[in-house]
Design brief:
353 residues, alpha+beta, four-stranded antiparallel sheet, 11 helices, globular
């Protein structure tokens, strides 16, 4: 049987509740629209000085009422995240560093988290210009809105990704495909790559969106081809989300179709044993990187030979050609033949020059 609280204990509990209520009123939690506003003011507004980022702009941007935006703005101001007055007609990030405010409301752990999140933002740069980037960064600003400040405690990440190939995505296709993914609904579209029948309509079961090296692919089962395929999102036209549902199979993951290979977005049906000899700088580089789940190495003074299984035939060929004379395929035979043909074709082009 639990004992009854003393009068002093009850008073202490009430004091703590009152203190939390006062703190919540003074520094209300930033809502999802506030997080979006912070991201836009931090990342977009500096490059667009002619746009007025006021309540009317955000009302149209998010398709919500003006009062909803004003509530979000009030919370941002209460947390010293945006300035009390607009600057040239736009809301603006309050970059002033208040040592007293942050010493009271931000623990050392939170400050470390902010630095970590800033680094995560750097990693996310490789997905810039994708809806995924917008969604994840909105989440970051929601979880830790202080990241919007540019003071030394909230500095840029120290873990970053070097400049990557930029994405150019058909966002309408992304939204329709993503909607179908969430509902497990079939999609209908035309595929407009030059080597395809542009008039034929595909009906597919969408499994995954796959981001790889500047392109976004839909990995799906095609009723048209009766197999799983990768479709480049930018070559899908007249996309329609159908009412027909499908049952997601257990082996829907694209990783189940790589044959153990780790060379990016590629679906292959034939698992082959590869053997490639690397020399020069590639000799040491390869020993630090994993091309496939089952890779093994053999070495001598001049070379490193990598053996592995994969179904990513074309990706393996790309890897070999990217290393030039420092890479030589030894197996399978069809890869050796294809490599020789490519090298000879390049040599002919050199001669023509």
């Amino acid at each position: 049987m639990s004992r009854r609280l003393t009068e002093e204990e009850r008073r202490e509990r009430q004091d703590r509740r009152d203190a939390r209520a006062v703190e919540k009123e003074a520094h209300p939690k930033v809502d999802k629209y506030g997080a979006k506003i912070l991201r836009i003011l931090r990342e977009e507004a500096p490059d667009n000085p002619n746009i007025k980022y006021n309540s009317e702009y955000f009302e149209k941007k998010f398709d919500v009422s003006n009062i909803t935006i004003l509530r979000s703005i009030k919370k941002l101001k209460a947390n010293n995240l945006i300035k009390d007055k607009q600057v040239h007609g736009s809301y603006a990030i309050d970059e002033k560093f208040s040592e007293e405010f942050y010493s009271e409301h931000c623990s050392e752990e939170i400050k470390k988290n902010v630095a970590l999140i800033a680094s995560l933002g750097g990693v996310l740069q490789q997905f810039k210009n994708t809806p995924l980037y917008d969604s994840v960064t909105d989440l970051i600003y929601f979880l830790q809105p202080e990241i919007a400040k540019s003071d030394k405690i909230f500095s840029s990440g120290r873990v970053v990704v070097s400049p990557q190939m930029e994405y150019d995505i058909n966002t309408q296709n992304w939204e329709k495909v993503y909607d179908a993914l969430q509902k497990n609904h079939k999609l209908r579209f035309r595929y407009t790559k030059p080597y395809t029948n542009n008039e034929a309509q595909r009906i597919v079961w969408p499994f995954q969106l796959v981001l790889d090296n500047g392109s976004v692919y839909l990995f799906a089962y095609s009723e048209y081809a009766d197999m799983v395929l990768l479709y480049d999102l930018n070559y899908m036209a007249d996309v329609v989300v159908l009412k027909d549902e499908f049952e997601l199979p257990e082996d829907y993951d694209i990783n189940d179709y790589s044959g153990g290979g780790r060379l990016g977005a590629y679906k292959g049906d034939k698992i082959e044993k590869y053997k490639i000899c690397f020399t020069g700088y590639a000799k040491e580089w390869m020993k630090k990187h994993k091309l496939a789940d089952d890779q093994t190495f053999t070495e001598d003074d001049e070379s490193t030979t990598v053996s592995f299984s994969s179904s990513q035939y074309d990706k393996v060929l790309e890897l070999i050609l990217s290393w030039g004379c420092q890479a030589e395929p030894l197996a399978p035979a069809r890869l050796v033949k294809r490599w020789k043909e490519e090298v000879l074709a390049m040599a002919e082009k050199v001669k023509e020059k």
